[in-house]
C-alpha cells in the first residue's frame, strides 16, 4: 500500500489495485502516518524511504505497479 501511495495514487486508485475499500486505504495510511509521527503523506513517504522501510531499487519514480 505504501508503494502505491508513493507512486501518487489516490485512495480510490490504490483501493482498486488492492481490491479493498478506499476508506480502508485511508485508515491504513493514517495508521502508518501516526506510527511514523509524520505530518502528511509526503512527509510519511519521505520518512519511510529514508528509513529503508519502503525498499526501492532506483527510487520511487522508477517503481511500477505489479
Can you give a write-up of this model?
Residues 1-52 form the HTH luxR-type domain. This is HTH luxR-type domain-containing protein. GO terms for molecular function: DNA binding. By secondary structure, the protein is mainly α. The protein has one domain (2-62): Orthogonal Bundle (Arc Repressor Mutant, subunit A). Helices cover 58% and strands 0% of the residues. The protein has 4 helices and no strands. The chain has helices at 2-6, 11-18, 22-36, 41-50.
List keywords for this structure.
Arc Repressor Mutant, subunit A; mainly alpha; HTH luxR-type domain-containing protein; 4 helices; 66 residues; single chain; Sig_transdc_resp-reg_C-effctor; DNA binding
Quick structural gist:
This protein has 66 residues and is mainly alpha-helical. The chain has helices at residues 2-6, 11-18, 22-36, 41-50.
